From TrEMBL, chain A:
Gene Ontology cellular component annotations, sorted alphabetically: plasma membrane
Matching NCBIfam families: PRK10998.1
Localization: Cell inner membrane; Cell membrane
Keyword NAD: no
This protein's name: Maltose/maltodextrin transport system permease protein MalG
Keywords, sorted A to Z: Cell inner membrane, Cell membrane, Membrane, Sugar transport, Transmembrane, Transmembrane helix, Transport
InterPro entries found in the cross-reference section: BP-dep_ABC_trans_perm, MetI-like, MetI-like_sf
Cited function: Part of the ABC transporter complex MalEFGK involved in maltose/maltodextrin import. Probably responsible for the translocation of the substrate across the membrane.
Classification of source organism: Bacteria, Pseudomonadati, Pseudomonadota, Gammaproteobacteria, Oceanospirillales
A GO term, aspect molecular function: ABC-type maltose transporter activity
CDD domains in alphabetical order: TM_PBP2 (cd06261)
Length: 296, 519
């Protein structure tokens, strides 16, 4: 508590609250709008924030259930949203698990061992992490196109290709985990090794159980990044039933046929879990993000 | 830090535990299988003539084998998988892109020369002479083909099973009249099309008929004939095609290029094109400038908003900080591909909420998607919305580290909030913030997702020979050259990508120096 108080502090406090409330409502408006539109009749944006004609049509369609309008016409779901969500989750889970395994083992070596080329490798990782994948898309496309000729599940239009390609983003996570490992005292592991444990056993049975929090954070971080990945998925995936949500969602807002209402329901349905997960884990995620780089 | 037995050069003892020994052998087996699989890929790529990829996997398999067999490289085993992933999916694409930038790799020069040759050799043409009308006559489950030419030649085949789609040669016999049954309709012909296309009908005089249209068979001949000196003879047009290895096309005597071609090395021509061809240089420079402006303004706006909010939220007289904080970082928590699309709908010129509100308040309806300057403003507005929470979080962290007595001293000397902001807070956080600002600049410099989902680069720049838009950033411009429209000019896209790589490399080196990373 500050010792010296200016006299006008009450007025200032009120002003600050007013300014913040105005700003927050400006920021949150688009999000509330979308929730409201998802419960509204019709595919247009017009209408008030609290729906006048309440309807579950868009939600039903987003969940893949055909909807019967009062006049008897049956509307079929325009896009397989749940399938896209499932694709996204499938790709994200597998790639996050792989990234976590790779990042943990290498972070262990970088934090605890001396070996040739350690410093240049770490620095190189920081530099290469800044190169956007969009620029290498031609090369990645060519790589998977050729690989697909010999290994079917790694070709264009497979989820395997998308998962494997995401392994390039491992550098950021190595840095995050390495920082955490370095904050844990190494004497526990040394004690274990004096008692005859191998390096691997010291890592597996001593260090890993101590680092579960950071592993959770990296997993969630990798998961969120994978769900939001757009450029690579847009090039590697072709068929509608193979798309991930990030690529598929834009089809609702095609230039000539905007399905605003259907989009809103799909967006809330798929965006809400990710948003909530992010908010719950924000404390740890933000620590990792601000330490390493920028959200992608 | 500690050393392992291996790094001390001590021999490894044979483990007393049976399971451990088995695990070791299992690991060795897995490694061996992986190495063999990779070497098989090397061979496959090599036989296919793709030496870059063969080399990549040779390097990968070789280093895998070495790292996991030499005991002195024990520590490297832990980092090998991650480094390999980085190598294959980040560094190799970089080198490969650099390589492509010196070639004319594009949708017209896509296949290898051999494949182009094969493709040309499989081309056929309809020989001069009679085409036959086709009719199908059912005979039980099977079908007879009946052919009749305008000149009155008639042929009929034996009953065929058209469910069999294999390529095969079928003899046909001369006949006087069509079979007695009723002919099958068009629908049956369409259904049997795949099977019919595989048929080669051999007439009694030895000429071969192939399907030439849905209801026609005609004598088809191979169009090109390979000659020993590598040229192709075009039977239909009676000309000679010579392979030109400087442009990657077969060229006819009159200079006409025959598509498809194959990729060849064109030296620096993609780079000179960027800087000399006015139809490319103009849009390129315009996009280049806009990319810089966009990235700088984004950083300035997001920093300004984030900094002011952070200072407000750090004020100890304020209640309800946690709620404000959560609401303020919401734009960060919502997946970007969803919030960008929300804005795309909101800014819609005809039905969007933004124009509805502006219309009722001020009576204006800006053309957000067709006017270049309005589109650019929209991008900046949306990107500020998306990006300020990151700056807010950064600033909050840094402001917390400023000692409170500085503000006390300022209050004693009569400093107001503005003095505090500009004389204490800002100077103290700007230094640790700089590397993060450079990272944010680099990120927005390459903010592909925003452009791709919101404007797609539109409205277009007039008079550009490549797809280029007034709101395109360099990355989205590259993406469009490579993957959109008919051109698909991978070579040119790779050249621009290489230039961006250089810029990004410069930024990240600067960043590394400023942030003084300790390894």
């Amino acid at each position: 508590m500050a010792m010296v108080q200016p006299r006008s502090v009450g007025v200032r406090r009120l002003g600050a609250h007013l300014a913040l409330i105005c700003f927050v409502s400006l920021i949150v408006f688009p999000l509330l709008l979308v929730i409201s539109i998802s419960f509204r009749e019709g595919n247009f944006a017009t209408g008030s924030l609290i729906p006048e004609n309440f309807s579950l049509e868009h939600w039903s369609l987003a969940l893949g259930i055909p909807w019967e309008r009062p006049d008897g016409t049956v509307v079929q779901p325009p896009f397989p949203v749940l399938l896209w969500l499932w694709n996204s989750i499938k790709v994200a889970v597998v790639s996050s698990v792989l990234i976590l395994m790779l990042a943990t083992t290498s972070a262990y070596a970088f934090a605890r061992m001396h070996f040739k080329g350690k410093a240049p490798l770490l620095k190189g990782m920081l530099i290469f992490q800044m190169f956007p994948a969009v620029l290498s898309l031609v090369a990645l496309y060519a790589l998977f196109d050729r690989l697909g000729q010999f290994v079917g599940w790694l070709g264009i239009n497979t989820h395997g290709a998308l998962i494997v390609a995401s392994l390039g983003a491992v550098a950021l996570h190595i840095w995050t985990i390495k920082g955490y490992f370095e904050s844990i005292d190494g004497s526990l592991e040394e004690a274990a090794m004096v008692d005859g444990a191998s390096t691997w056993q010291a890592f597996r049975y001593i260090l890993l159980p101590l680092s579960i929090p950071i592993l959770m954070v990296v997993f969630i971080l990798a998961f969120v990044m994978s769900i939001m990945e757009y450029p690579m998925a847009s090039v590697l995936l072709v068929d509608e039933h193979k798309l991930t949500l990030a690529v598929g969602a834009q089809q609702y807002l095609a230039d000539h046929n905007q399905r605003w209402g259907n989009f809103a329901a799909a967006a809330v349905l798929s965006g809400l879990p990710i948003t909530v997960a992010f908010l719950i884990c924000q404390r740890w995620i933000i620590g990792g993000l601000t330490a390493g780089g920028v959200k992608g | 830090m500690y050393t392992t037995n291996a790094s001390r050069g001590l021999p490894r003892h044979r483990s007393r535990h049976l399971t451990e020994r088995y695990t070791r052998w299992a690991m060795r087996g897995v490694i061996a299988v992986l190495v063999i699989a990779l070497l098989w890929l090397v061979l496959a790529f090599h036989l296919n003539g793709q030496w870059m990829f063969a080399l990549l996997f040779l390097l990968l398999g070789g280093s895998l084998g070495v790292v996991f067999t030499k005991r002195s490289l024990m520590s490297h085993r832990y980092i090998f998988p991650a480094v390999a992933g980085l190598g294959v999916f980040v560094i190799f694409p970089l080198i490969y892109t650099f390589g492509i930038s010196f070639s004319n790799y594009s949708s017209t020069n896509l296949l290898s020369e051999e494949r182009v040759r094969d493709q040309l050799m499989s081309q056929t043409y309809q020989a001069e002479g009679n085409a036959f009308d086709l009719a199908l006559y059912p005979e039980g489950d099977l079908v007879r083909l009946y052919l009749e030419s305008p000149q009155g030649q008639r042929f009929v085949s034996s009953p065929l099973n058209l469910a069999n789609q294999e390529n095969r040669q079928i003899g046909v016999q001369a006949t006087d009249a069509p079979p007695a049954q009723e002919a099958l309709g068009m629908r049956a012909v369409i259904q049997a099309r795949d099977a019919l296309q595989g048929l080669r009908l051999v007439t009694p005089d030895g000429s071969e008929l192939r399907m030439a249209g849905l209801r026609q068979f005609a004598p088809m001949l191979d169009r090109y004939e390979a000659r020993e000196d590598g040229t192709l003879y075009d039977r239909r047009d009676d000309r000679v095609l010579t392979p030109d290895h400087t442009i990657g096309f077969f060229v006819a005597d009159d200079g006409q290029r025959i598509t498809p071609g194959w990729p060849v090395n064109v030296g620096f021509s993609n780079y000179t094109q960027i800087f000399t061809d006015p139809d490319i240089r103009g849009p390129f420079m315009q996009i280049f400038v806009w990319t810089f402006v966009f990235a700088s303004l984004t950083v300035v706006f997001t920093l300004a908003v984030g900094f002011v909010l952070a200072s407000l939220l750090q004020w100890d007289q304020l209640r309800g900080k946690a709620i404000y904080r959560t609401l303020l970082i919401l734009p960060y928590a919502v997946p970007a591909f969803i919030s960008i699309l929300i804005f795309k709908g909101m800014f819609n010129q005809h039905f969007g909420e933004v124009n509805m509100i502006l219309d009722t308040l001020f009576g204006v309806r800006p053309e957000w998607f067709t006017d270049p300057w309005m589109a650019r403003s929209m991008l900046l507005i949306v990107n500020t919305w998306l990006g300020y929470p990151y700056m807010l979080l950064l600033c909050m962290g840094l402001i917390q580290a400023i000692p409170q007595d500085l503000y006390e001293a300022s209050a004693v000397d009569g400093g107001g909030p503005l003095t505090n902001l500009f004389k204490i807070t800002l100077p103290l956080i700007i230094k640790p913030l700089t590397p993060l600002l450079i990272a944010a600049f680099a990120f927005n410099f390459n903010n592909f997702v925003l452009i791709a989902l919101l404007t797609g680069g539109n409205p277009d720049i007039l008079g550009a020979s490549t797809p280029a838009g007034t709101t395109d950033l360099l990355v989205s411009y590259t993406y469009r050259i490579a993957f959109q429209d008919a051109g698909q000019n991978f070579g040119l896209a790779a050249a621009i990508a290489t230039l961006i790589f250089l810029l990004v490399a410069g930024m990240s080196l600067l960043n590394l120096r400023l942030s003084k990373v300790k390894v």
